[in-house]
Amino acid sequence: MLTSKQRSYLRSEASKLEPAFQVGKGGVSAEQAEGIEKYLAAHELVKIKILDNSLCTADEAAAELAKMTGAEVVTVIGSKAVLYKRNPEKPVYSQNL
C-alpha cells in the first residue's frame, strides 16, 4: 500500500513518461496484462492510455490491470492511468520510497 507521499513522488516521476500501452475497444486482455507485467519488472512504473472507444472507463481498466499484474494504481487522470510494482531485485524508484 502506497502512502500519499509515495503516490505523489511516483505521480511526479510518471509525468515525464509517455504511455507505453493502450487499452482499446477490446478492453483488458490477458496478453496485455502479461506484457505490462514484464514492463513493470524492468521499469517499475508504467503509464497506460485508455482510448475513447474502449468499453471500460480508465478507472475500471486500471483496477483490472492492477489486479491481473499485482501492481498498485498510482493515479488515474482523464484517459491515462499509472501503475507501480516494486522490483525487489533491481529497484528503480524504490530507493526513494
Structure explained in plain terms:
The chain is of the alpha+beta class and 97 residues long. The protein has one domain (4-87): YhbY-like (Translation Initiation Factor IF3, 2-Layer Sandwich), CATH 3.30.110.60. It is 38% helix and 21% strand. It has helices at residues 4-14, 30-43, 58-69, and strands at 21-23, 45-50, 72-77, 80-84. It has a four-stranded mixed beta sheet, with helices on both faces. Strand 1, helix 2 (30-43) and strand 2 (45-50) form a beta-alpha-beta unit. It is globular.
Give the helices and strands, then pairings.
Blueprint: H1 4-14, E1 21-23, H2 30-43, E2 45-50, H3 58-69, E3 72-77, E4 80-84
Parallel strand pairs: 1-2
Antiparallel strand pairs: 2-4, 3-4
Q: How many strands, what sense, and barrel or not for the largest sheet?
A: 4 strands, mixed
The CATH class assignment is Alpha Beta
Alpha-carbon Rg, integer = 13 Å
- How many distinct domains? 1
> Could you give me the name of the CATH homologous superfamily?
YhbY-like
What is the CATH T-level topology? Translation Initiation Factor IF3
Q: Portion of residues in helices?
A: 25-40%
The second-level CATH architecture is 2-Layer Sandwich
**SS class:** alpha+beta
Number of helices: 3
Name the overall outline: globular
Spatial order of the strands in the main sheet? 1-2-4-3
Give the amount of beta strand, in percent. 15-25%
Number of strands: 4
Please tell me the overall pLDDT.
Answer: 92
What structural keywords apply?
alpha+beta, single chain, 97 residues, globular, 4-stranded mixed beta sheet, Translation Initiation Factor IF3
